[in-house]
Design a protein that fits this description.
Layout (H helix, E strand, L loop, with lengths): L5 E3 L8 H7 L9 H18 L4 E6 L2 H12 L5 E6 L2 H12 L3 E6 L8 H10 L5 E5 L1 E2 L4 E2 L2 H10 L4 E5 L11 H4 L3 E5 L10 E6 L1 H9 L9 H9 L9 H17 L1 H21 L3 E2 L10 E5 L6 H12 L1 E5 L9 E4 L6 H17 L8 H12 L7
Parallel strand pairs: 1-13, 3-4, 3-5, 5-8, 8-9
Antiparallel strand pairs: 2-10, 6-7, 9-10, 11-12, 12-14, 13-14
Helix pairs in contact: 1-10, 2-10, 3-4, 5-6, 10-11, 11-14, 12-13
The structure holds pyridoxal-5'-phosphate.
Length: about 400
């Protein structure tokens, strides 16, 4: 590969040049003043984006490690937990909980549909003994965003429960107000909307979660939140962190604040709507329920006769554009176009154009320009966000 791939997958996301340059510097002592200065900037920055005054913890691992840390710090073997799910990442929350010996009560919505607040209320009411509730904000595998504000209110109304949310592919790219919405633990990861490479997981942990943590009896060592909190308060981490990735997160946060969070969220929404319009015009069928379509990843079923694997290979090899396929039981059955982090209208035009060309080459549909025309109409309906 000579030129860089255009990553239209839901993570890792494209690295802005500013982030690459910020990481291109010598490492510093992770227990010295230079790294403390980095933490002193990124911890409050992350809190601001998460909408929280809670403790912000950073772990060197992928997003799944951040999710596992929540289970390791909150769940005791044999403890009943509720997992509300509607896709592959929800299933992962079930698996992690089972690995730690939890008795999982799964509330599963059909893939492509959101978790229903009434169903959640019913499960909560039927299980007053359950203290831990897990859910996924943005279900990346189906391109669907649950109404977290509404679901969190249902959990809050159901008495003394701890709500743990996978916000890996949402926080930083769409509104997620941890404190205002009543979320107790919110997890994200550096390679999604934060515009940095994979390597750091972020966990915001609120007071109700800390209380439950005190009685949790799962074994934990590297993932122990207590040690993490104590060290981060002193401007370090218990073990060697991904120092270079932290430089990248620092620069990514600066970019988010320079653009303005409202503008960031609007850019993602506008691009997602145009992506959906373009894919539909190309003959794809949108997979996620209307009204719940994600601002960070668009999922769609292919037109009749299209081999998703062949499409993805052609896009990668001939056009240098990489899109995702389905996950779990949808493997090979859908496409997912990621548009989170450093993604502009120009990037969207590129992937849609390439898809249209590829469909012609694969004898599915002539490249008649309708895909981009539909995306353009969608963009024209919404004020096109600034690109510089
Ligand atoms: C990307 C992602 C994760 C974490 O995946 P890792 O590969 O472990 O970083 C978790 N949940 C969701 C919803 C995601 O999109």
């Amino acid at each position: 590969m000579i030129f860089q791939q255009q990553l239209r997958i839901p993570g890792p996301t494209p690295l802005p040049e500013r982030v690459v340059r910020a990481m291109d510097r010598p490492l510093v002592d992770h227990r010295g003043p230079e790294f403390k200065a980095v933490l002193d900037e990124i911890v409050p920055g992350l809190k601001k984006v998460f909408g929280t005054d809670a403790d912000m913890l950073l772990l060197t691992c992928s997003g799944t490690g951040g999710l596992e840390s929540a289970v390791a710090n909150l769940v005791s073997p044999g403890e009943p937990v509720i997992v509300a799910l509607c896709g592959n990442f929800g299933e992962r929350f079930v698996s992690i909980n089972r690995a730690y010996g939890a008795e999982v009560i799964a509330l599963e919505a059909e893939w492509g549909q959101p978790v229903d607040p009434a169903d959640l209320r019913e499960v909560l009411n039927a299980h007053p003994e359950v203290k831990l509730v897990f859910l996924t904000h943005n279900e990346t595998s189906t391109g669907l965003t649950n109404n977290l504000q509404q679901l969190a209110r249902v959990v809050r109304d159901a008495g003394d429960r701890v709500l743990v949310v996978d916000g890996v592919s949402s926080v930083g790219s769409m509104p997620a107000e941890m404190d205002a919405w009543g979320v107790d633990v919110l997890v994200s990861g550096s390679q999604k909307g934060w515009m940095a490479p994979p390597g750091l997981a972020f966990m915001a942990v609120g007071p109700r979660a800390w209380e439950h943590h005190q009685q949790a009896r799962s074994p934990r060592f590297y993932f122990d939140w207590g040690k993490l909190r104590d060290e981060i308060a002193k401007g370090a981490t218990p073990y060697t962190p991904a120092v270079g990735i932290a430089f990248g997160v620092q620069e990514g946060l600066r970019m988010l604040f320079e653009e303005g969070l409202e503008n960031v969220y609007r850019r993602h929404r506008v691009i997602a709507d145009a992506c959906a319009a373009g894919l539909q015009a190309a003959g794809f069928q949108l997979f996620a329920a209307e009204g719940f379509r994600s601002a960070t990843v668009t999922s769609a079923l292919p037109p009749e006769g299209l081999d998703v694997a062949a499409l993805r290979t052609l896009l990668r090899q001939k056009y240098g554009v990489v899109i995702a396929g389905g996950q779990g039981k949808m493997t090979g059955k859908m496409v997912r176009v990621g548009h989170l982090g450093a993604v502009t209208v120009g990037d969207l035009v590129q992937v849609l154009w390439a898809i249209e060309q590829a469909l012609e080459e694969l004898d599915i549909k002539p490249a008649d320009g309708r895909t981009l025309a539909a995306a353009g109409e969608s963009l024209a309906r919404e004020a096109t966000p600034a690109l510089a």
